[in-house]
Design goal:
The termini are far apart. The chain is globular and about 80 Å long. By secondary structure, it is an alpha/beta fold. The strands form two sheets. The protein has a four-stranded parallel β-sheet, sandwiched between helices. The protein has eleven helices and eight strands.
Length: about 260
């Protein structure tokens, strides 16, 4: 038996807000990335700030050549994040590729899809973070091979940082980098930090280093910058969130200066 149900049209259309959330962050991440999305949900996303993801193709191993191959995908990846709607910042979440492709080339590629939006790369954000903490002498820890680490050493040196110690773990698969246990990250970080350094930078958005940043600082008394901690900090500050959150690390107590 068919029951006839009366469906009534509302007498007026609903009132629409300008945005479902006040601020919007776009993430362009690797198809193989296990860590960035989780870190941003933990450190950045809130009732006023949404994080929206686009994944682009990436094929291991992590080599300068394979990293460079991502450049043509950046425009399309950015275009797929809330098409035709404005974002408050876009992150390209790959540290080693940011060095190989270049911050300015990444910015140009993403602006082809999303003109005018602030672009955040892990490398540029790390530089701002180190400067915010007053760090000029640094130690660096990467999960990469020597071949992939070399351009990163050159990047920081060319920007005027003195590198006291540079340590790499020799991995070539970013999925394995994501599986480094947090206690192992701490163990390698302790050895990677030179006593005379002002801060330690732990590279790679796949590495779960942001989870242990505050523990490292409590043990050593020295600030640590990680790729995801730096980009999260930059995005929060660009969106007007200036809260001090020392439980995430010293960086999250610092202001952000553009330029």
């Amino acid at each position: 038996m068919t029951v006839e149900i009366e469906i009534i049209a509302a007498g007026r259309p609903p009132r629409l807000e300008d945005r479902p959330l006040e601020k919007r962050i776009g993430l362009v991440i690797l198809a193989t990335d296990h860590t960035t999305e989780v870190d941003f949900q933990r450190m950045v996303a809130s009732h006023r700030l949404g994080v929206y993801i686009s994944r682009i193709h990436y094929a291991n191993p992590v080599t300068p050549e394979n990293l460079l191959r991502m450049q043509p995908s950046l425009t399309e990846g950015a275009a797929l994040i809330l098409p035709d709607e404005a974002l408050d910042a876009i992150v390209y979440s790959c540290t080693s590729a940011s060095v190989v492709i270049g911050d300015r080339n990444i910015e140009a590629a993403i602006h082809a899809a999303k003109p005018g939006v602030p672009i955040v790369t892990p490398t540029a954000a790390a530089v701002k973070a180190l400067k915010a903490l007053g760090a000029r002498r640094i130690s660096v820890l990467t999960p990469y091979t020597i071949e992939t680490s070399r351009p990163m050493a050159d990047y920081f040196a060319e920007l005027g940082f003195a590198i006291d110690r540079f340590t790499c773990l020799g991995l070539t698969d970013d999925r394995e980098m994501a599986r480094i246990a947090p206690d192992e990250i701490l163990a390698f970080a302790r050895k990677a930090l030179a006593p005379q350094s002002d801060a330690l930078f732990i590279s790679c958005t796949a590495v779960r280093a942001a989870q242990v940043a505050a523990r490292f600082e409590a043990e050593t008394g020295k600030p640590v910058i990680t790729s995801n901690l730096a980009t999260a900090w930059a995005c929060l500050r660009l969106c007007g969130d200036d809260r001090a959150r020392p439980e995430l690390g010293q960086l999250m107590t610092q202001p952000y200066r553009e330029g």
